[in-house]
Amino acid sequence: MAKPDPLVEMRHISRNFGGLQALSNANLEVYPGEVLGLLGHNGAGKSTLIKILAGAETASEGAIFINGHEAHINGPNDARAYGIETIYQELALCGNLDAPANLYMGREISNWGFLNKKAMKEETAKALSRLNIRIKSLDTEVETMSGGQRQAISIGRAVHFNAKILIMDEPTAALGMEESKMVMDLTVELKKQGIGIIWISHDIHEVYNFTDRITILHGGENVVTAPTKDFTEDEIVSMIISGRPVERAANEEA
Ligand SMILES: Nc1ncnc2c1ncn2[C@@H]1O[C@H](COP(=O)(O)OP(=O)(O)OP(=O)(O)O)[C@@H](O)[C@H]1O
Ligand SMILES: [Mg+2]
What we know:
4-stranded antiparallel β-sheet, Rossmann fold, binds adenosine-5'-triphosphate, 6-stranded mixed β-sheet
């Protein structure tokens, strides 16, 4: 079967902070309807790479292509215009606002200068129900919600605003098992809609079972990019630590 064209290609991305080379010639590709696991130990450059895609950080060198065309991403609004949405663990939502206010933050519906709260609430209810996200009351301030519910609202927001590429930086790090499962179930729904997902996680077991492909970074450089199941969990851990692709005997090659 012919592979579809990538949604995103980040090519030869470098970024230094003063004398520190956070990324060096890093590449990343995301295809529609897949979950790409972005792996590497602390400081490997994962967040810096996705921040460049999200417009929160700029590359010193390199280029980004969206649907085969070079994209110019100079800020978060540029990224959003390309359909790139980012979900951060806690930072994304405003705790003292309810779900509709959060969903529409920065893109409020207003008529003649007045916020149309009724429309935002109705649209929020529709957006969340499309994804089977159940929130007890849309009038509740989100700071009283669980991490999983907040995560669900962030995902609902991204989808509502037509995300094509969803970046999730350690989405399950602060969640319990049930909530992680809910977020993963939601993510599977997004895959079915053809959204490409970048999933950063330190939980190797989760990554192994949940991602379609992996890209491992080490010291800001690519170690390997491959279908997840080309390796064992132990091999993935060893590549993350050593920064070297695992050696295979020639007869093991696919
Ligand atoms: N704004 C910054 N100023 C200076 N150095 C930075 C900045 N952001 C990141 N770095 C450095 O760049 C390197 C890569 O950081 P990055 O946050 O991308 O790592 P990471 O792979 O996301 O790690 P973690 O798993 O801990 O989140 C690190 O050495 C980090 O200290
Ligand atoms: Mg990080």
